[in-house]
Amino acid sequence: MIPLLLAPLSDDFILFNLVRYLTFRAGAACVTALFIALAFGSRIINWLRSFQRGGQPIREDGPEGHLLTKKGTPTMGGVLILLALGVSVLLWGDLRNGFIWAVLVITMGYGALGFWDDWLKVTRRNVKGVSGRAKLIAQAGLGLVVGIWMMWLLPNGLHSNLALPFLKDTLLPLSVLFPFVAMFVMMGASNAVNLTDGLDGLAIVPVMIAGAVFALIAYLVGNRIFADYLQLHAVPGSGELAVFCSALIGASLGFLWFNAPPAAVFMGDTGSLALGGALGGIAVATKHELVLAIVGGLFVVETMSVVIQVFWFKRTGRRVFLMAPLHHHFEKKGWAEATIVIRFWIIAMILALVGLSTLKIR
Fold this sequence. Notes:
2% strand; two-stranded antiparallel sheet; mainly alpha
């Protein structure tokens, strides 16, 4: 909104020319989202507490310490993230850009689904919200719509192909299957972040790390000169997603202020489903779908721990891990929560560096 209002006035007020620069707007979006989150965080938490008398329902079969340390903490803090993110993007993003709107739709749509799931949990005082089948159907439907939208936005030659990391000229043709692959990427990322969100600060920092990586990727693939130099597949217009990623980082930082141990609020499915969907949408738009699996490798490992646990238990009646997802396994082994969280952050940073290496190793 601000670029559309101020850019025409740049000839009369030279300072307004700054809004023409993507880097300036990205930085402004980050600061704006952070300010909104910090300014409204306490009010939103008090609002959440007003109708969540017992806070987020805690699984009785989970780690024993959670019944003591997590009880009474409100959930649905993703509302704060989405408020800060949405307002910041609408203020600093170029609203003529289709990629901005497509990623906003998947983010807010998955956020709305997560909100409904959280609402059922806190009002019913039960850990079960929306049924798993209904949740997957809703995610698939919205993901498919946005996948088709992305296919229409992407340039010819890329719109129905899958780019492979480390290979500069290789594209995997998918034809009409591309929207379904895009749907799977967005659904997978959404549910993977959701499974990782189990300890204070565990999911939000890796999300910020992935957001920073994709802010750089979006900026590079959206710039023909940089894309050609690095032998990346250029996607005109995708650079605007750097503004979205920066706003996501700012909103997440603001949320972390309140989610730092001991957490005053949990993001809930409202935040985790939305943030994962956002990362998936950005990966599809920038043609780095497979790189997301590297950068977000922590989320992949957490998800695979659940898949392995369920599969093996159904086959043999025995468990591979003491508890899944993986972070609960280490809790059961006696690791302190802070130790698990910080070590998982370190792993996320290492994987982000590996993901960044795909931009040059080709």
